[in-house]
Amino acid sequence: MGKLVLKALIFVVVVVFVMSVAGCEEQNQAVTKEHRLIAAENVELKGQLEQRDKEIEEQKELLERCLAEKKVLEEEADEKLEAFIGSLLEDLGDNVKLHEENKKLKSQIEALQKESSSLKAEIKQLKEEVEELQKETASTAEPL
Q1: What is the phi/psi pair of residue 142, to 5°?
Q2: Whole-angstrom Cα distance, residue 30 to residue 11?
Q3: Measured between alpha carbons, how far is residue 31 from residues 39, 43, 45, 124 in Å?
Q4: What are the pLDDT digits (tens) for 32-87?
Q5: Is 110 helix (H, G, I), strand (E, B) or coil?
Q6: Cα 21 vs. chain centroid, distance in angstroms?
Q7: Which of these, 66, 68, 67, 86, lies nearest to 78 by C-alpha position?
Q8: CB-side exposure of 42: number of CA atoms within 13 Å?
Q9: What is the rounded CA–CA span in Å between residue 144 and residue 138?
């Protein structure tokens, strides 16, 4: 019976060994498959990261161009604003000069109107004096 037990024991050990090797191989195949899936996913994610990095760089370049264009437009706007303000101030200065000139002209008109009224009164008085002189001359000339 010793030989039989030994044979049975050897058989059991061989079976357990074969089963563990077969189980490890299946487990190794599953782990290898999982590693391949993870590696494929990593490659895909790296590709996506590279694409995102490329898009980010393009957006940075676009931002730089936009900022440069914004700066140029702001400078042009500042120049135009300064020119407009200068023109406006010039126009205001001209308006002040015109207003002062209008005041002087109104003052001159008023003075001329007073002078005209004075001259009209003087002319009226002179006419009256001429009429009186004519009447006196006519009355002295009649008795002859």
Answers
A1: -75, -40
A2: 28
A3: 12, 18, 21, 133
A4: 888 888 888 999 999 999 999 999 999 999 999 999 999 999 999 999 999 999 99
A5: helix
A6: 74
A7: 86
A8: 6
A9: 11
